[in-house]
Design brief:
Growth Hormone, Chain: A; 16 helices
């Protein structure tokens, strides 16, 4: 059977707070991703060097992932999410203010590292809060986030063609953070006894092989998503002849697919078994990639990116849910490891793609995507048997 008995997803104010925190997170993520091709032009560096911004994001995520269990025990998930948002904005402002490569690398790293603790603490809180409906809540949270962040590539591309410049568009992230803090700063999910500090397993017991395979699937899913985020605009420009600024709007099509897919996925996750749903989403991504990779027509390229985004939309929520489910009731330990794996994926995936692009061209470098899809499908099938 591919369906499961439906469960109920109840959204309270605390749930909506995490959803909206993910929305602010998305404006940083897609804003800096859309800005990278223009930042590369401003700095006059190669594609591989520009890819170091992805490496900086990875290093930041890994460092904060290592600190996340300790930080959660010390100050709790609520304070962790707001601390992460504050640090994320500090990194974004560094990118806005700086022009030198070391400064922008530092900005990308700080923004990514601090944002990741908001993301993973929020996901763990939703998983605990909603129980059997946790996968649906995580998918819906990411859907809301993408709906907010979907405007970021368009805003960056539009600002790049004005006297303000693309950097001004990144200020949307701190503005939205302040508005959210003023309106919902006192809201949080009621803590259950023992939710933050768990003796025994949470302290460091060994995790089973299914957890590690689930982590490998998460790695592949994050790597391929960031390959799209950081390099799809470059391939779009090369294949269609559009300028870098206009081609950045291709990420809008990708994020539109992400938003639609995550809302649909939240519903499907209540009915369809997660392994089946994840394999289907990976297959849809491969289909969209094929259309995007082969096309020279802007309309077909937009369509391919939208289909790719529709598939990618379910990768992270479902892969993270599988990591949490395989953790044996240790969500904080699992999310910390997931953060580290995702950080490695962010660093290795785009950097390797950028290096391959320097050697073989961006089009052939993008063959990494179906390779990662195949590895992820294999991992899902093996761990679900």
């Amino acid at each position: 059977m591919t369906t499961i008995a439906p469960v109920q997803l109840t959204r309270d104010r605390a749930t909506w707070l995490v959803y909206l925190q993910l929305g602010v997170f998305a404006t940083y993520l897609y804003g800096l991703s859309a800005a990278l091709p223009m930042l590369r032009i401003d700095q006059g560096v190669s594609q591989a060097v520009a890819g170091l911004h992805g490496t900086a994001m990875a290093v930041g995520s890994i460092l904060t992932g290592l600190a996340l269990p300790w930080l959660t025990r010390r100050i709790g998930r609520r304070a962790v999410t707001w601390t992460g948002l504050a640090g994320m904005n500090a990194g974004v402002l560094l990118v806005v203010a700086g022009t030198a490569l070391p400064v922008t690398l530092l900005g990308y790293g700080i923004a990514s590292g601090m944002a990741s603790i908001t993301l993973y603490a929020g996901m763990a809180a939703l998983s605990d809060h909603h129980g059997p409906a946790g996968a649906a809540a995580i998918s819906e949270a990411n859907a809301v986030g993408v709906c907010v962040g979907i405007a970021a590539p368009f805003v960056v591309a539009s600002a790049a063609q004005t006297a303000l410049g693309w950097r001004a568009a990144l200020l949307m992230t701190p503005v939205l953070t302040v508005l959210l803090a003023l309106t919902m700063g006192r809201v949080w999910i009621p803590e259950r006894a023992g939710a933050e500090v768990r003796p025994g397993p949470e302290g460091g017991a060994r995790l089973g092989w299914r957890f590690h395979v689930a982590g490998a699937v998460l790695f592949c899913c994050v790597a391929l998503e960031f390959c799209f985020n950081l390099w799809a605009a470059k391939l779009f420009a090369d294949r269609t002849g559009l300028s870098a600024a206009v081609a950045a709007t291709g990420l809008t099509a990708f994020t539109a697919g992400l938003a639609a897919g995550r809302f649909a996925g939240a519903r499907l996750a209540l009915w369809v078994r997660p392994p089946v749903l994840l394999v289907g989403a990976l297959a849809l991504t491969a289909t969209g990639w094929t259309l995007f990779w082969l096309s020279r027509d802007p309309v077909l390229s937009y369509t391919g990116l939208a289909l790719s985004g529709l598939g990618v939309s379910l990768h992270f929520p479902l892969a993270l849910s599988r990591v949490l489910d395989a953790s044996g009731g240790r969500p904080d330990q699992a999310t910390a490891i997931a953060s580290i794996l995702a950080g490695l994926a962010v660093g290795i995936g785009p950097l390797l793609l950028g290096a391959l692009a320097d050697g073989f061209g961006i089009r052939w470098a993008f063959v990494m995507v179906p390779v990662l899809v195949g590895l992820a499908v294999g991992g899902v099938l093996v761990s679900s048997s």
